[in-house]
Fold these 2 entries.
Entry 1:
Amino acid sequence: MTAPSSSPQDLVTPDELLELWPILDADEQVEGFRLLDRAAAEPFFLSRAAAGQATLILGLPEGERRLWVRLLAPDDLADVLQVVPSARRTELLALLDEPTRHEVQALLAYAEDEAGGLMNPRYARMRPEMRVDEALRYLRQHARRKTEAIYYAFVVGPDDRLLGVLSFKELLLAPDDQTVEQVMRRDVITVPETMDQEEIARLIARHNLMALPVVDAEGRMRGIVTVDDIVHVLGEEATEDIQKLGGMEALDLPYWRTPFRTLVRKRGGWLTVLFLGEMLTATAMAGYEQEIARAVVLALFVPLIISSGGNSGSQASTLIVRAMALGEVRLGDVIRVLRRELASGIVLGSVLAIIGLVRILVWQSLFGTYGEHAALLAITVGLSLVGVVTWGTLAGSMLPFLLRRLKLDPASASAPFVATLVDVSGLVIYFSVAQIVLRGTLL
Amino acid sequence: MTAPSSSPQDLVTPDELLELWPILDADEQVEGFRLLDRAAAEPFFLSRAAAGQATLILGLPEGERRLWVRLLAPDDLADVLQVVPSARRTELLALLDEPTRHEVQALLAYAEDEAGGLMNPRYARMRPEMRVDEALRYLRQHARRKTEAIYYAFVVGPDDRLLGVLSFKELLLAPDDQTVEQVMRRDVITVPETMDQEEIARLIARHNLMALPVVDAEGRMRGIVTVDDIVHVLGEEATEDIQKLGGMEALDLPYWRTPFRTLVRKRGGWLTVLFLGEMLTATAMAGYEQEIARAVVLALFVPLIISSGGNSGSQASTLIVRAMALGEVRLGDVIRVLRRELASGIVLGSVLAIIGLVRILVWQSLFGTYGEHAALLAITVGLSLVGVVTWGTLAGSMLPFLLRRLKLDPASASAPFVATLVDVSGLVIYFSVAQIVLRGTLL
């Protein structure tokens, strides 16, 4: 353990390091990385996310940095620079050669989560008038190390306008003596520089693509977004949605890398908002203090009633939020969803009402728990359940539409948010039903 | 609209059809598909998920089926057959040529969600002793239409044992006169046939791969899993987890394609279980009927207290479930998570306690709502909030560990499930605190 770190018995394998990676702090990550065999270090470095690459580059001694910075493709480098404190950005940019620095600076102008920010400006390109065998030779000569993906070759005119595309397989299969123009596909799916990453992910998944060309307003090729970038995007977007649906702000960092203060802040914010909303239940309950005092038995069912509304609401909102994220449900579908969820709510509410009714009547006949007006109480609880569950389902399914219409993230319609929203109205429904059914008997 | 469907003005574009796709029923999908231009129909068909391809194949007239069935790679065909009613499987298998039928039948033996079921048995392969230029020529001759991805070429021995790998770019960059063996990489990441799709997705994302070779116990190549399959897997897994976290069974089909009966059944099942669990709150409340009768004011804060426990619990469980799905948190981390969440719970609970305390004291001084013992009531509510939120956070963060230890899906630790779990204990905490603090005054 005290031997110099270059001795072979100290080397770690990439797999060992990967296992530990999520739980190491920045210094330990750099230390572990330097214990990797040189041949293993390169693929390890390249497979890290931008944040990990930034940690490594900044943690390494100054003399070693240039090597690793230059290993990155321009789009990946831009991602790294975006997570580096801005004071250190210039320092790292200075390590690049002139043309690459320009490419990277151009990429930095785009938002990280849109096509321009995700794309790699280097891709395999060819001219339409080349013969197939010339094109293959040309690619062999020009395939540089940093041309990230060679899965498609893009056919561009002299003004960089995108004319067509050929997958490598198609190029290999084509007869030598035809021109690229004769064999290329012209119906290329392209995306604008400003397209959001979620939309790009949907397009790539929908059309089973390995890469998507990014073009500017004049149809000129700017770069390509590859499916491996999208795999990361999909994971990140799902994590964000899941955390929001759980009733907190998205963490943006892995659980162990999130500092305790941030963890508490991102949960505490929403928790406080929900708490303030939930205080209205105390106000609503206060409005029914008379009724509770007269019939304490009514209070016993308060948690059961309001939680049923919250549960059915959180099911409905989760369902609709995910369907919206997948493009299955759109703003225009609001009426169709309303009808379907209204029907679901009534059915689900009736099922719970019957169970609740039976429960009260059985307990009453066995233990006499609820006194002489048990049957009326059972009816009150049953009717309230139908009302609360139907209302919860409707509120849960409509809230995502409302949020999207207000240009907010539908995923904020979290289970706790919907539950809080439904709790107050659930109380009002319950006590209103009680006032009608129990008038003259218990109340 | 009444013109024969072959007239050009009736043709729809693939984009128009894609827009409508999720909301069409099976017959309409087939009808729409047949209105596509022949050249557009092929990529459209290939980009459908297995369920969509099955709908189209079964919906087309018998004479047209063979064409489309033969267009599919063996792994995709196996996926289609897996969603087709078993009675029709033989019928479709009969449309294949002998060798393909054998390949497909071999694939059908694997579970759909493991490496063997996802892999394509056709991939670009070469021998180690080939020269680079020979290898390129060989690939050009043997690249068949159905060799799904040519991104990597796999180097195999005479017994099909995997020796190394070359990306196409590496092959293109290598000098003509070297042998494949001299330029190939030997440290190939492989997966066994039985590896679960979630694990494969993690590996592909972690190492930024375009494809992963699947090998049997003897190290023989069986096929490849490509990143485009994984994009679909990731989406499906996230949807499943999100729906479970919302407190229902995963739907397995898009929202509009799920029949109403199924929709209600998959939600009603969990809703009923949660309702039965929540009934314990009525029992718990009945145990405190005396206290409520004596101090009705206590009942007013019941919804506020229990919902705070539920909200903090659902935050914690969502966080841990997602971190587990991403491999950030493992079973062995249980003690570290416990410590961290205990601390989070105490901090979050204290924040809410202070807000609750201030609220009661302010209302009291403004409206005199809570009578002479308002200060003691405020202390009761504050202490209960610390207890309930800490307990909710702990229960929410530990439940996913318990579920995984029991070999159940951690994602079943849904917000409503955790809330229900915490509601009963929340009541016990609240009334116990009340009995201690308010003894001799209100109680």
Note: DSSP finds 21 helices and six strands in chain A.
Entry 2:
Amino acid sequence: LEINRGKKKVIGAADGKEFQVDYDKLLIATGAGPTPLPVPGADLPGVLMLKNLEDGRRIKSYLNQNPVKRALIIGAGYIGLEMTEALHELEIQVRLADVAEDLVPWAPPEMRAIVQEELKSKGVEIRTGCEITEIQRSGGGLRVVTKKDPIDVDLVLVGIGVKPNSEIAGAAGLELGPRNSIAVDKTLHTSDPDIFSAGDCADAFHIITGRRVWIPLALRANRAGWAVADNLKEDKVFLPGVAGSSVFRVLDVEVARTGLSPREAAEAGFDAVDAVIKSRSRAHGHPGNTDIHVQLVAEIGSGRLLGGAIVGKEGAAHRIDAIAVALMAKMTASDFFQCDMAYAPPFSPVWDPMLTAANQLLKKL
Amino acid sequence: LEINRGKKKVIGAADGKEFQVDYDKLLIATGAGPTPLPVPGADLPGVLMLKNLEDGRRIKSYLNQNPVKRALIIGAGYIGLEMTEALHELEIQVRLADVAEDLVPWAPPEMRAIVQEELKSKGVEIRTGCEITEIQRSGGGLRVVTKKDPIDVDLVLVGIGVKPNSEIAGAAGLELGPRNSIAVDKTLHTSDPDIFSAGDCADAFHIITGRRVWIPLALRANRAGWAVADNLKEDKVFLPGVAGSSVFRVLDVEVARTGLSPREAAEAGFDAVDAVIKSRSRAHGHPGNTDIHVQLVAEIGSGRLLGGAIVGKEGAAHRIDAIAVALMAKMTASDFFQCDMAYAPPFSPVWDPMLTAANQLLKKL
């Protein structure tokens, strides 16, 4: 497939025949593809990718046709962590390997420890700092060779990240953004005004840094698609950008974030400070009460909120949206601390954990 | 107890002895008290109030000492609805009576129906538009006489509202606010600069209308107490006000609100419109998926968000805080629609129900 921008044609081939399509406006919605595992044996049967619906069907069918007792998930991103839960529920012994030294590396140590504990307590073996060099057939199963001990399993799932499918855009000379995603403006035009891009292949502006970022997540992809439809004739919809809000569940723990981590804030040039607090998910003495950790990040001086993270067994996933709204509103920690959160004993302490975090953060600003 | 503002003294009597206390600064934190049920028999044993911790202990002790199979809760406010759950869990047959024609009258019909259905499906008998004229002893139990059929039960719980304990403030000539609450400014001073008031006895400014309101809830009471401590020597803490955010659980349903209902918005002089949508609590096909209803209210013209309500079996309670933050930030429906909410299949559809509501609301603005 190739775009001829001068002639406003898309030229391609299907079933051995060349075809040409003229366009007035063109949308590139090529999505993102999985990063392949660059080691020998990555193409063996029983080594499966984790990316799209078809991959999911392949995994399901493999599990139905083969006796899988032990699985290795390579890549502890949110997809890998969510698959851990799915396999654990099927009573498969799960091992989780990542080349990074820490799980959830953007989170503060208190939160990382909770994720780690949750996995360990459910029998998931974690291998961080794990460099895989080869995958071999071994008896009826697979041997994953690493720089340390080998790992013997029946199934390997690979979810080590995705990359934008931007080759066609790059070849057509369109401007590319971070990680070779397709650069678009706030009305979803690429550097060619007649070509739009939307979905996991395209970049976005970060609402905190104002810089281009590539954070391929479902809501933005969906929102951008709708915006292209609205903007086909004239620019009607303007997307301010993303905060990188995301959430996933690791077994019984919810992990949520939005905006910048302290490290990302520093990298973006902010003089930032954070507070991490531990509170409870419900009122004192309410049955079912569990720990909840909240981190808030703000800029020293202006007090502007830059990001937040929440980890806990309940209430983390939905609370993060309150912080996401505060980021969109460019709120300060002080304004956020004054927000009138709803309280009832089954849902939070009188001071919502987010307010407690804001209060501690204010002491550092 | 009496305040002599001229002499800056509090004069009272305890154990038959008069006492006087001089003050430089005085805090009135007298709270709120239950509205009594103004009918004969309201003082019979087995007719108990629902307001403070002591009432809770009395109810517990009554339940331990008496065989209670059938209870009537008078007043379907959030305290009454929460007690319904507590008694239902004790396998007591609960009847719920309120003089109003509707349960949760501020909510749109779709939401009211869900609360009603939830109560009915768990065997709670609802009597709305119920005027009680007398309570009588009847056999071993109580007969509650109404303008329609009488209700025979073993226990009557009364939670028909509260009123501010502001007599002492009124007698001292301090300015009173709505419902005779004690009027305070944003630094918690009453009309006398040396007298503060905080807690359920004091009023607050509503962040949407800018007007004084009396919405006695725990967070504001707590926040105001802290602010008085901070402001004793000089005004350091300024409380912008409340949005009236509240949440309660009715059996398995979460009911949450913040800001103004369409009716309250109209009464405050806003040209307001609302959208009510039904969405799902989780992604399509995710197990445990349930209905969730979201209402958003905005001002026609400016598009400013004025309020919201959420009802559902999960995720209603914590989502409401995102709307509360938007209200504090004076966000428009359009800005709110652009917020980057977190998505994962166990927690919401790709478009969070709040965004779906904002989208529908935008079509009406």
Note: Chain A has nine helices and 22 strands.
